[in-house]
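Sanity check

After download, print the first record. It should look like this:
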Amino acid sequence: MPPLTASEKSSLMRERLPEVRNLARECRLCPHDCRKDRLAGETGVCNIPYGPVVSSANLHRGEEPPITGYRGSGTIFMTGCNLRCLYCQNFPISQLRHGGAMSPEQLAVRMLDLQDRGAHNINFVTPTPQAAAIFESLLIAIEQGLEIPIVYNTSGFDSVEILRLWDGIIDIYLPDIKYSCEETARKISNAPGYPEANRLALKEMHRQTGALELDSDGVAIKGLIIRHLALPGDLSGTEASLRFIAEELSRETTISLMSLNFPAHKAHKHPQLHRKLRKAEYDRAVGLLERFGLENGWIQPYEEVEDDPQEGGC
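Expected structure tokens:
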């Protein structure tokens, strides 16, 4: 099914906006299920007001090739996060909450400016805590001429309730599949219930968009790309995550398999996260892609690091 036109999106969003705002009024935007009245200024685990609160909005060339394209992705880094990952490389934005508040109209102007500058898409990074405010801002932008695809770039800890309201609006989902182990998710990301909630979210995203679709220039126009970061000591539970994708989504799913570039934020205090991923660990993850028949996507060039004694994962 082809993407909706701007007019069709606008009509659908106007119909759904009251329900979106109700999810924020008794916040159920993510599996933390805080039930705080975000419209009244209350905050939950994410500690972010209703929004929008934005760290930056610029053309970005550091995403996967079909997202970056040849002109760049119109990347909007939303302030705050509903996770507390010990190793987060964007922690000044996600956890220290660097950024500034703006009105929905001001955020819409930013989107239109990025479109005018040639962005292939509007790419919302960490949208989940501010999904309702983004929805409101995006509606304004679409009614003022925004036509490029919308990317939902998320940790994957999203409620199916809000994702269903994005159906037909989001063109490209770019979620993480971080963990297959409940205990690990809770201890290093403060995300109890992550594995189950994440898998339900991925199934909903896949239902909406299906496999990745590209235009004649190789730029993404619709579909799903799943990111998986292989962590030291297999804290990420890579085998179970990739098996889930292959067996319960599709072997055609596009995967971006990443390695941890450096131990960031509080990782140096953790007995396994304090070091870089070993080449043998990353090679094993790459081998699992082949084992499960996941042939679409990318792996990162690996920089050799000194080996350490083996550690156990989850």
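If your output differs, re-run the checksum step. Summary of this record's structure: Confidence is low (pLDDT under 50) at residues 305-312.
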